[in-house]
Amino acid sequence: MPEPGRTPDPNARLLGAVLSFGWVLPASIAAGGGLGWLVDRWLGSFPAATAVLGVLGFLGGLRQLLREADALEGRRKPPQGPQSPGGSGS
To answer: What number of CA atoms fall less than 13 Å from residue 89's CA on the CB side?
Structure first.
């Protein structure tokens, strides 16, 4: 718990976000493959649902990694100056 009146260190937040990157993709693959394995046991069609849901888990994990990377990149960019009224000038 942070001390009262003290702002949290933004570098610590960045470090936490970057360290979570290594777990997103394997966890998504494991969740998709595990759910596929359960569906295959239930239906008796072993490799089909495991493969399909494993690939969907991979794609979902990849999408989440890209979204988190975009969010971190947006945090890192310096703020843009105000836009001139009237657009690109005519």
So the answer is: 2
1 within 8 A of 55, measured Cβ to Cβ:
no
User: pTM, whole model, 2 decimals?
Assistant: 0.69
Answer whether 55's CB lies under 8 Å from 32's CB.
Answer: yes
- For tokens 């998709």, name the residue: 32
pLDDT along the chain (90 residues), means of 10: 72 80 93 96 92 97 92 69 57
* Contact present, 28 and 61 (Cβ < 8 Å): yes
DSSP letters, the chain, are: -PPTT-PPPHHHHHHHHHHTHHHHHHHHHHHHHHHHHHHHHHHT-HHHHHHHHHHHHHHHHHHHHHHHHHHHHHHHSPPPPPPPTTTT--
Q: Say if CB 39 and CB 49 are below 8 A apart.
A: yes
